[in-house]
Amino acid sequence: MLSTAAAAEHVLTVIIDDLGDRLKDGRRVVALPGPVTLSMLPHTPFAARLAREAHARGKEIMLHLPMESVEPRPLGPGGVTLHMGQAEFTRRVRANLAAVPHVRGVNNHMGSLLTLHPGHMSWLMNELRQRGGLYFVDSRTTPASVALPVAQEYGVPSATRDVFLDPVREAGAIQLQWERALAKARRAGHAIVIGHPYPETLALLERELPRLAARGFRLVPVSAMIAQNTKRSPDLWHASLSPLPPAAKNSKP
């Protein structure tokens, strides 16, 4: 049997995105074993209900904030775009946060265009910082994203996605991505995995999550992952909960 210290060396966080449109799929995610983190699309029919049900079962809730992408894809309700000014952008973010109960943090839905722009990311991180205690996870829909360094500059607890679990909706491909995520966690001590409520993905998680402890991994929510890695490597994770000095805050657009 692994010791607590050994188990803590390999930590995994699993986030399921795109929740709120379908109640049956969402409830299957809520029922997954262990502290899986659920990320809710704002103003969708079942987001609030699923957030409350998941919170009651001890799971962590995130806002899956729709952000404009390079490809002309529909954002759905609550989307934020490059043409918005700061006041409109901030109002939209606040309304989205209010639409999802028990929110602990935010990650981006799409966003390959918006996460390239430091100004818009500064507006977002300023809002998260002012609310206190909310974290940000960069889904890394583009390798050129500036979201994480801007979050760090603002002192917002933050992290970035390591592996997408299901870019290909095929059982064998998802299994390979799962093993890739575990290999990353073995090497680095931690990994953040993002998946979606596809039947193929949920079938894998229902099978594999109960096996994690026996394989030497510990599943934790996003907040615990950030807190643990802040202690390990504060310069890299920079997850301070303290606000920046007023001069730094006022220097932002």
Can you describe this structure?
It is a single chain. With 253 residues, this protein is an alpha/beta fold. It has one domain (12-250): Glycoside hydrolase/deacetylase (TIM Barrel), CATH 3.20.20. The protein contains eleven helices and nine strands. It has helices spanning 4-9, 23-30, 47-56, 86-99, 118-131, 147-153, 171-188, 199-208, 222-232, 234-237, 246-250; strands at residues 11-19, 37-40, 61-67, 103-110, 135-138, 158-160, 163-164, 190-195, 218-219. Strands 1, 2, 3, 4, 5, 6, 7, 8 and 9 form a nine-stranded parallel β-sheet that branches. It starts with a helix and ends with a helix. Mean pLDDT is 89; it is low at 1-8 and 235-253.
Please give the structural blueprint.
Elements: H1 4-9, E1 11-19, H2 23-30, E2 37-40, H3 47-56, E3 61-67, H4 86-99, E4 103-110, H5 118-131, E5 135-138, H6 147-153, E6 158-160, E7 163-164, H7 171-188, E8 190-195, H8 199-208, E9 218-219, H9 222-232, H10 234-237, H11 246-250
Parallel strand pairs: 1-2, 1-8, 1-9, 2-3, 3-4, 4-5, 5-6, 7-8
Domain count? 1
Our count of helices gives: 11
Largest beta-sheet details: 9 strands, parallel
| Cα shape | globular
Number of strands: 9
Please identify the top-level CATH class.
Alpha Beta
Q: What is the CA-CA span between the terminal residues?
A: 53 Å
CATH superfamily, please?
Glycoside hydrolase/deacetylase
Structural class: alpha/beta
Spatial extent as radius of gyration? 17 Å
Uncertain stretches: 1-8, 235-253
Helix content: 40-55%
CATH names the topology as TIM Barrel
Average pLDDT for all residues = 89
- Work out the strand percent: 15-25%
